[in-house]
Amino acid sequence: MKVQLALLIVAEAFMPGNERMENNIVKKHFSYKVASLVLSGLLCPLCYGDDSVIIVTADKTEQRLEDVPGSISTFSGDELERQNIEDLETLARKTPSFSFQSTGQSGFNPPVVRGLTSYATAFSSSMLMVVDGVPTLANQGFENSLVGVERVEVLRGPQSALYGKNAEGGVLNIYTRQPDNAPRMHLDGELGSRNKHVVRLDAAHPLIEDTLYIGVAGQFREQDGFIHDRYNGSWADDRKSYDGRAVIRWTPDDKSDISLRYSHLNYRDGASLWGSVSAPRYEVSSGTPGWNRSEGETVSLDIAHHFDSGISLRSITAKTDYYDKLKQDSDFMPAERFFMQRDYHLSNLSQELRLSGEQEEARWLIGIYADKTDNDLSFTNKTPLKVKTTNSALEGSSLSLFGQWLQPITDEWSLTLGGRIEHDQIEIKPKDSSAKSQRWQQFSPKVSLQYRWMPEQNLYLSYSEGFRAGGYDPFASTVNYPAYSPEKVRSYETGIKGLIAPIHLRYSVAAYYMQINDMQVQQFVAPGVTSITNAATAHSSGLEASLEYWLNEQWSVDGTIGLNRTRFERYRDGNNDYDGNKNPYAPDLTWHIGVRYDADNWYANASLDSVGSIYLDPANKYRRGSYQLLNMSASYPVNQHITLSAYAQNVTNKHYDAVGFMNGNVTVYSPPRELGMRVSYEF
User: Which terms are listed as keywords in the entry (predicted)?
Assistant: First the structure.
């Protein structure tokens, strides 16, 4: 006990100057901390585990993870690699109340967070993805490589006060590694099931020491499919993709940091993971070959400058383009009777400018954001009677002003006030009709009250509002392309979180209730014609918890759970009454548990991830059952440069097909078990 008290006193003495307020709190509550250690009975003579402070930028300013008054999960780049997390869907399974809709198509991944979902034809998602400050506003292109990533932050709950439209359910923030004076190179090759081969690279090098640096990252992936096409005797769903990213960073002095980034993503896939609901599993007989030729690219300029006054400036200018190009058989028969084809070009030009600083003990932020969107959309639907192609252009613009003020009230209490006023305009230009436009103005407030009841232990209450952008349904030509309004969410949340370093435990628990108004849903607007309308209201409530616990120097465990109940309060679709039904694609339960063992010269992971059952339609007629996936991986460093790794995903070969997709006509197949090995070289 004396040794541990001495360690606490020494740690307190060497606290950085910018943590003086925290230091005062430590002094005030030191006796309580000692008492908690004695009561725990878990004191140990040696320190172990990852008790380090985690810094996040959830509120667009740097904060310790435990100080953020909201629900947030973080993953470092090392964690992603060690847990073999290669894509966003795998990452979501380790995050409470976060999943993706089952589409079976690369590059098209509608997110589901706290029961909030969106439709494919809405061209706006229920969660915002932000990569190095650049937003992705639609479900198309909601995918990003995790090669060369510094960290990922998953914010749950409405975030529109700082992030604007389409952050009604949360924000997925991805931060890539920045090059600096330290040269680095990480190169690995991977072989796996179904002739899978992957090559990845993450490298950086200074061009001029302390001034100019360059970094590159990317990967090439190729793998045979698992759906047998009996018509031509081949695999229908082969996968092939490559992505790359480059950054040039310039630091002319110790106060300026300028980065020019470029990224590119390209798919050369076969068909979607689709099949007939009545055919044998993993078999089709498609006379119409399916393919996915989608690609995207982003160019951005990121400027940061710190003035002598203590004020910081941040400017992010970006241009993104995503080309969603896909053809898919939808009856899986030799005759070419039914198929669908998309040819979309989604373009967005955005600019964000913000200032942040401190006023005595308070911290503030103010900013302005503007964007311009141009979407050219062509959709073809083939039936035995006709081929119908709809061509439209959607053009939109946004202008918003946002700000936040964090005010300490006492050593224990603090108050955060934030808000955003946003003006959105959208215009549809159909090829076969006259143009129409709509305007909306939204105010999204945020209020949170935080109580630090012990050092690094926080309790918070918050109220926030969020919204998903309104628009036009570009494919409802028979009813003259009706408009729909923004979907609005009001959220009430309370939570407790903290880091108990002496017993090596990091935890968080949150409970929330959300009221959803003007819900964007599909509705029959004419006989045989559906369109997106604001025809429903709903509520969502839930409980989330996560923990990380280090048992000793070798063993650690982590776990998450998300309980959610999202139900329609009122939803009428013609003669159909969906009151009380579940929102499609929203699971009531998600959970994850992981175990990790670190030896002196190797490590191993095992995790069990579970996603509850979902319905695929508002009538709750078609369903995908709950499932659990067991994943395992291990790594052995041969020397300081070379590491050998092996992994097994879906060890038990669990089937979790979505039967009844596309109004009961399609099964979206789940991938089978996958085994693989990887060789990594690093210096």
Answer: Cell outer membrane, Ion transport, Iron, Iron transport, Membrane, Receptor, TonB box, Transmembrane, Transmembrane beta strand, Transport
